[in-house]
Amino acid sequence: MRDIDRWVGVNASMALPMTAGFAPDLVALRRYAGWLADQGVIGVTVNADTGEGAHLSLEERVAVVAAVKEEVGDEVTVVSGLIAAYTEQAVELATALRDAGADGLLMFGIPAFNGSPLPPELVVRYFDAVGEVGLPLIGFNLTPSLGGIVLAPDAIARLAGVAPLCALKEASFDAATYVASRDALRAAAPDVALLSGCDNFMHESFVLGADGALLGYAGLAAGLTREVFDADREGRYAEAQRLNRERMQPLAEVLFGLPVRNSRARIKEGLKLLGVIDEVAVRPPLLGLDDAERAALRAAMKQAGLL
Fold first, then answer.
1. Are 67 and 86 in contact (CB under 8 A)?
2. Whole-structure pTM over 0.90, yes or no?
3. Which domains, ranges and CATH numbers included, belong to the chain?
4. What does 169-216 look like in DSSP terms, one character per residue?
């Protein structure tokens, strides 16, 4: 029986502080991880999209996991994104991440998942192979507009039978798809957690039955995310709706506005405004922010009560 309670709460997907020369700043990363832990998150995720995981070498991803795990210890769960091209590479990377201290893996789609229809057997075999490494696995429904794949309900039902699967992060950003994924997961494996990954659809996704959340938004506004999640979870919907309307959603619309790829730079800019990190640098070819984006972010953070 899988422990669904382990995933009830907010897991913050972390940005990756970098030096002006675009190298991971592990000192700032540790400070940032401790800052998030102090805000009551149940977990942190590194090497995912928010953390520029696809832009890092294997050695850098391992170093990121080791630094964060050393900082937070067993206080919070440390999940690492698993971004690979094929099964053998994924197993090699998963093993290295496990040995560095990762407590779980967020499973990004691989190129073989692209195209329709996607045979569920292909997905199951990939998860089974990575599962042999011995870490809990989090499936990932990510809208294709952000470079991901959305598993059909029959694939989710098959995947739910993979022993190490502990959760599904649902980031389709579509209410009907979200509900279909939720229902397929609940029917096949009620002990597998449904995690909201919908940064600009958070409140609604909580109301629709998420057990927890794994969000880049929480990498900047962890406390506010917890407030809204807890209010929805406890049935205080009017309070959650007010917090969402007045504070959460205006910031989400800036952080994850077009172009969405700039969300990494926006989150880092916000962390610098809060004094958590010293540099705002994203690894090329990603771009930094212009003055208008910085001004919009500062205004949204003030409205959210962060500044």
1. no
2. yes
3. 4-242 (3.20.20.70)
4. EEE---HHHHHHHHHHHHHH-TTSEEEE--TTSHHHHHHTT-SEEEES
